[in-house]
Amino acid sequence: MTKKFRKSKSFQRAADAPNLPNTPFRFICYFVNQFRWWYVAMVLLEAIHATCGIMLPYAIGEIVRSVTRSPDNSKHIFDVVSQPLMLFTALSVGEVVFGRSAGLLQTILHPIHRQHIVRSLYAYLQHHSHRYLSSSFAGALAHRIGETSLGVTQTMQMLITEFLSVIVMYIVSAILLYRAYPPLAAFVGVWAVLFISISFWLATRCRIHSQKAAAARSETTGIIVDTVTNLISTRLFARLGFERRYLNEQLRRELKEVRKSNWYSERIRWFQFISAAILKIGILYYSLSLWSQGKIATADFVVATSLSLLIISEARNLSRRFLELFEHIGNIINGVSIIVQPHELIDRDKAIAHPIAQGKIEFRQVYFSYSAGKKVFENLSVAIQPGQRVGLVGFSGSGKSTFVNLILRLFDPQSGQILIDGFDIQDMKQDALHAQIGLIPQDPSLFHRTLIENIRYGRIDATDEEAIEAARKAYAHDFIVQIQENYHSLVGERGVKLSGGQRQRIAIARVILKDAPILILDEATSSLDSITEKAIQDTLDSAMNGKTVIVVAHRLSTIAHLDRILVFDQGRIVEDGTHSKLLALGGAYYRLWKMQAGGFLPVEANNNEEEFRSQKKEVRINLGT
Question: Mean pLDDT, to the nearest integer, of 558-568?
Answer without folding.
Answer: 89
